Amino acid sequence: GHHLGHVFHAAGLHQLAGVFGGHAAMGAASDAGFTLFGNRFVQSAAATAALVGPGRDIIVDGFKSLKNGVPNMNTLVGVGTGAALAVGLSQALGLPATAAWADSSHLLEEPVMLLSVILLGRVLERRAKRRATRELRALGSLVPKESMLVFDQRGVARNGDDPSVRMLETWNDFETAVVRTDDVMAGDTVKVLPGETIPVDGEVVAGRSAVDESVLTGESALVAKAHGSEVAAGTINYDGALVVRARSSGAESTVKAMRDFVEAAQAREAPVQRLADSICGPFVYLILGLSTATFVFWQGFGFDTFKDALVDYSYANLESLAWLSSGTSVALRYAVNVLVVACPCALGLATPTSVLVGTSLAAKRGVLIRGGDVLEALAKVDVVVVDKTGTVTQGRPAVVSVESEGMGEGELMGLAAALEANASAAHPIARAIVEHAGSLGSPGEEGDRIKVGEVE
Description:
Blueprint: H1 2-10, H2 14-31, H3 40-52, H4 56-67, H5 73-92, H6 105-140, E1 146-151, H7 168-172, E2 175-180, E3 189-192, E4 202-206, E5 209-212, H8 214-217, E6 223-225, E7 230-231, E8 236-237, E9 242-246, H9 254-267, H10 271-316, H11 327-341, H12 345-364, H13 372-377, H14 409-420, H15 428-439
Antiparallel strand pairs: 1-2, 1-3, 3-9, 4-7, 4-9, 5-6, 5-8
Helix pairs in contact: 1-2, 1-11, 2-10, 3-5, 3-6, 4-5, 5-6, 5-11, 6-9, 6-12, 9-12, 10-11, 10-12, 14-15
Protein name: P-type ATPase A domain-containing protein
Subcellular location: Membrane
Main location: membrane
């Protein structure tokens, strides 16, 4: 409340400031009842420790940037907190110009509060980065770490370009060895068994199977693959063994290209982020100028002109009149207020974090976003046209309703699940039937004794 009150102070809106400042004044008075925390030297030590401890890197970076002529967001934080601490300490220690102020905690709490907000924002930003990193690792984990490389009797890796070897039975006669997927080179041949994830992008040279490509296309229907068919890393082979000639190395798969795409998207700045970076320098100089002008105004003639209004404000908010003892004390208070409230914390922290989190969460849900500029442009989109089923759905079928005559839903689903039990691992619709039956408590254990006689 006290911090927000300073915002209105800096704008000259003292009546609104009183709503928030009054509560802070009463809170400070009650705190003074505690011998330890009400002691001005303890408060001074705590505030100093906060700035030279957790806030040290921010403040040092801010002043270095100012010294080099390229001020940044940290510059305002450093100047604002440093000025507030300096005035608060001089007040607490009874130095001239500030000794008459009634409560030193007002200026000592400002730098600590501001640094707390900044540091909390950066902690949240780091958490978002760690979560984004986990999402990208999960995207890369779609590709198995190991592959089954095919060798001939001489121990030489077979090349899938050999047109004389097209029968799966022939490939079964060759030796295989488990190797790291990243070590598979273009032209090498790998064997993929039913239920395994295809490790490389390539072409089928032997075998027939059905492949689940929903991870890339969103389509739940299995795609038939045979000799000459293209397959992609990260897709799942279902009901037959395949021999695949790698089109590229294991380290250059489609899924890994997607991960690199997302990482590049996170590095692209949104227009609002570029705007924040471009206005940062001029903005810092503007605020420093406004703070100086505020000090000159109140020191020069503002104090004498508006002293009665300041007295009325202090009475209305139960504040001591000691801070009105001189124009210098008033000028310092308002000049520091301008520095403190001008720190654009949200602009500096929220923009890069939102781009980072947005692109990572979208990638996890199968949406690739080119960068922060695209995210920002989405705010202007009114209509989205989707090309096919599976693009915005989960990509796997589910039973939504059951219509039956003369038989309960549980009994019917139990029979259906028993019939589909053997196929549930390979076919998405069969899997949906078995899962729905299980949710009804009808798993269909008697599948081996059920035969299909006649279908009308």
